[in-house]
Specification:
single chain, 338 residues, alpha/beta, Spore Coat Polysaccharide Biosynthesis Protein SpsA, Chain A, 7-stranded mixed β-sheet, 49% helix, 12% strand, Glyco_trans_2-like
Length: 338
């Protein structure tokens, strides 16, 4: 008996209420990947229509498709990761079931991975395309810039629905993930970056088919993404990712308190000092002494707060970049801890 060829690619297709199109979309994906040993895993995320039945037609017709039905809607992230658990391919791709991103881009991502040796290849959409409503483009731009500032990822867009991973990347990162809905892409890519895996992006076109100025986005999605992103930032921060020991955390807090007390002390010492000449003018400008006292105090307070926040975010990114793929012993548990 001839041995079956090992699967080179698993495509995970999360689907929710896609009964009208899922069968035709499955056939198109299978036709695109004829030259590969692949499997297509359709994960029905608690659809209220006949998505599972229509996907099952492809199974009955002999296509390499596996259908997983989730009784309840669990969110896109949880749905994808559930599909990963059933996959067998050496490479694993994510693709949206509505095919707003055509499956032919899978071939582009596979070629880029072969040519560059990248561990992750992510599609990135061009939001300057006029097919996107103005409000949708602006919201996407603000979110992209915020993610870049917070996490320092070497990718311009984390939210596009087509990505390709080497299997080892998902095996290392998925167990650490917590977000299952709005911002799971960020947590996944941040984890891959923290483990030192190389991420490359590929431009893709999207056949935007949604109505309204924000498409599927609503107030619940927007606030959900906001809180998910903040929770990811906390879990991906130095304090949680590398788990510094209690003693080390205390020393870091004492350092911050020391900086604060030193600043207050310097201010008190300088207040009664009578400065002369150019130094007096320079200090008058730096300390905003030319402004009314109440206004000056509030400006210094607010300015100092934002300076601390900005510096902390930059320090967090630089510190984690310096520690990628290292085990730091007892004080820093390291990202490869068991």
């Amino acid at each position: 008996m001839a041995l079956q060829k090992p699967l080179t690619l698993s495509v995970i297709l999360p689907a929710y209420n896609e009964g009208d199109n899922i069968y035709a979309n499955i056939l198109r994906i299978c036709k695109t990947l004829l030259d590969y040993e692949f499997e297509l895993i359709v994960v029905d995320d608690g659809s209220e229509d006949n998505t599972s039945q229509e996907a099952g037609r492809a199974v009955d017709d002999g296509y390499p498709v596996q259908v997983i039905h989730q009784e309840m809607n669990r969110g896109k992230g949880a749905t994808l990761f559930n599909g990963v658990a059933y996959s067998k391919g050496a490479r694993i791709a994510f693709l949206d079931a509505d095919l707003e991103i055509v499956p032919e881009y899978l071939l582009s991502l596979l070629k880029v991975m072969d040519d560059t040796g990248a561990d992750v290849v992510a599609g990135v959409k061009d939001m300057s395309d006029n097919q996107f409503p103005w409000a949708r483009r602006m919201m996407s731009r603000v979110y992209r810039d915020s993610v870049a500032f917070l996490f320092g990822l070497a990718i311009t867009d984390t939210q596009t629905g087509i990505k390709l991973f080497k299997r080892e990347v998902l095996e290392a990162t998925v167990p650490r993930l917590r977000v299952s809905r709005f911002a799971f892409d960020i947590e996944l890519l941040v984890a891959a970056s923290r483990f030192g895996y190389r991420i490359v992006e590929v431009p893709v076109k999207i056949a935007y088919q949604r109505t309204g100025s924000l498409g599927r986005m609503n107030s619940r999605n927007i606030f959900g993404s906001f809180f998910d992103t903040l929770s990811i930032y906390w879990r991906a921060s130095f304090w949680r990712w590398l788990e510094p020991s209690l003693v080390m955390q205390i020393w870091m807090l004492l350092f911050a308190v020391g900086v604060f007390l030193f600043g207050v002390g310097v201010g008190k010492l300088l207040t009664p000092v009578i400065l002369q000449g150019p130094v007096k003018q320079i200090f008058r400008i730096i300390a905003l002494q030319f402004l009314p006292t109440n206004l000056r105090d509030w400006l210094l307070l607010i300015g100092g707060f934002f300076l601390i926040m900005f510096a902390s975010i930059q320090l967090n990114k630089k510190l984690l970049e310096a520690l990628v793929r290292r085990d730091r012993g007892d004080d820093l548990a390291g990202i490869f801890r068991k």
